[in-house]
Amino acid sequence: MRNVTIGIDLGDKNHIITILDEAGVIVKSCSLENVRASIVKFFRKYKGSTVAIEAGTHSPWISRELKALGCNVLVGNPRKLRKMPEVRNPRYVPPAEDFWKVYDLTEGQDRVMLLTFLHTAGRRGEIFRLTVADLDFENNRIRLSTKKRTGGNLEYDWLPMTAELKRELSWWLENRPLKNKPHLFMCLEERPFHFEHYGEPFQFRAKFMKTLCAKAGVKPFGFHAIRHLTASQLYSMGYSVATIQALLRHKSAGTTERYLRTLGLEHIRDAMEGLSAMGGKFTVADSGVERKDRPECRH
User: In what order do the strands lie in the sheet with 155-160?
Assistant: First the structure.
């Protein structure tokens, strides 16, 4: 297949593979074991394709194997790349009512997962990495792991667990079909392609939010936009930068201030108008962010 471009996010044990078609649309994402046999077997189907990888420990030998299969290999060394100028637009913050429209279409695992995104302001990888060991129901805490710090090492932060989130996570632990698995959120679909990943933690869920937004009839937004939504609601209700910084887990208050500026005040106003129209509002208690004036979660 010469008309695809493949990106490889290198790892020590596994590599993340993303395949794009001629239009730049992601057609497949998967994980590949970091052994020669697996790499050769996988890429044998994509002889002649363009493969982009980052410079790293494994890039030399992987490059040799791919070139031997006739692939056009591009190795990017970030230290040698010239930084391109960019114009940053305000980050999109979906109105709160759009989030709830999407949320109301979900059930089971997906419903609990979206609520977890909202109540923790977690990033996609942080939520997908959540395990049972990260839940401290006794002390009403939830632990997120992040790689967004200097050095890229995995670091852990405990956050307050709201009463609503505690109730929903408890329900999911009791009702999830694979109780022996450590991760909270995983592939449970038994359709072709998905079946080989059954029981594995999510990696991307590339089309999940796009599909839900289309069904709900709202402007498309992704998992990270939910983080924007949580931060913007707290900011627009007058909570301090220090409070928002603690939730977003930024090391520097300056980072939080820059983050809030990129959200755009007009989007914050739109979000609050959405809440006003719903007759509900976010409130922040000592235990965290909670949602009021909405019915109980349905599963």
Answer: 135-136, 141-146, 155-160
